[in-house]
Fold this sequence. Notes:
The protein has 5 helices and 5 strands, in the order E-H-E-H-E-H-E-E-H-H. It is of the alpha/beta class. The chain has one domain: Rossmann fold. The chain has a 5-stranded parallel sheet, sandwiched between helices. Helix 1 (14-25) links the parallel strand 1 (6-10) and strand 2 (30-34).
Amino acid sequence: MKPKRTILCVDDNEQSLSHRKIMLETRGYRVASFSRGEEALERFLRGDIDLVIADMAMPGLDGPQLIAKIKEMSPQTPAILISSKFRIYDHDSQADVFLTKGMYAPVDLLERVRQLLVRKRGPKRMQQRPAAIARQVGVA
């Protein structure tokens, strides 16, 4: 049996976060869910995160900022940005995939997650833990 992949899921809307978590867990993924970007970044620094799903607009550290920090430390970690806004090009984002709330079916999200995890293949864990990298780049 192959090990479960861990997805970091971040959204300040508790209902959306709960819905995504249940949907992903019923498909065999482990989900670390947070309602604040700062808490999610702390969890990412502990390691073993395979993919990030973040809401764009959150108080404090928003989705694009969170993804930028994660990509700085771990460029190979895939990220999906979800927003209620249609025009992503108005915002600077390093996300691999952008989805608009209400414009995609749950199966679309699951397929994007599957595709990004397949594309990520390679070392299961980074050679250095993200916390060590964060100290090197001055994030932590």
